[in-house]
Write a structure and sequence with these properties.
By secondary structure, this protein is α/β, with parallel strands linked by helices. The chain has one domain: 3-Layer(aba) Sandwich (Rossmann fold). The chain is built from 6 helices and 4 strands. A 4-stranded parallel beta sheet has the order 2-1-3-4, sandwiched between helices. Helix 1 links the parallel strand 1 and strand 2. The longest helix has 23 residues. The chain starts with a strand and ends in a 5-residue tail after the last helix. The mean pLDDT is about 95.
Length: about 160
């Protein structure tokens, strides 16, 4: 099982969007039995809450399932349990690296590291900006490239 964790600040906008989009791409590639996918936040303000209404709206618009998703906070054990820990921005990446110190076993990267043609390096936070469509576009494109990257590294074949 390849374990992938998406991380943002509160785990209600960007990381659950990335989790749902990546899950959909894995399903379409007929690889669901090869992956465990989750999301979490570095902050604890929204623990137990569903994704933000803006995230739910954009996922509904593209018919992407997010049922059962609830916000949670990153645990130190996540840094050892997950193979790929994907942060939405530099602040989240810094928080993860500080939390992990030398105890992580997985690869930690920013989501937009997988979309080098992007003009931005951090996924903007739509909680503050309301730009859910722009965030979806970035997440969708970079999740496609992330899946290809992981498939190549893990010798998985997409159908």
């Amino acid at each position: 099982m390849v374990k992938v964790l998406f991380v943002c600040l509160g785990n209600i906008c960007r990381s659950p969007m990335a989790e749902a989009v990546f899950r959909q791409k894995v399903k379409e590639a007929d690889l669901s039995d090869q992956f465990e996918i989750d999301s979490a936040g570095t902050g604890d303000w929204h623990i137990g809450k569903p994704p933000h209404e803006g995230t739910r709206g954009i996922l509904d618009q593209y018919a992407i399932d997010y049922s059962g998703m609830k916000a949670r906070k990153v645990k130190k054990s996540d840094l050892q349990d997950y193979h790929y820990i994907i942060a939405m921005d530099a602040e989240n990446l810094g928080n993860l690296n500080a939390m992990a110190q030398y105890e992580r076993t997985g690869e930690v990267a920013r989501l937009l590291d997988f979309l080098p043609e992007s003009q931005v390096v951090d996924v903007p936070d739509p909680y503050y900006t309301g730009n859910f469509e722009e965030v979806y576009d970035l997440v969708n494109k970079s999740c496609e490239k992330l899946l290809s990257y992981i498939c190549q590294r893990e010798n998985l074949k997409k159908s």
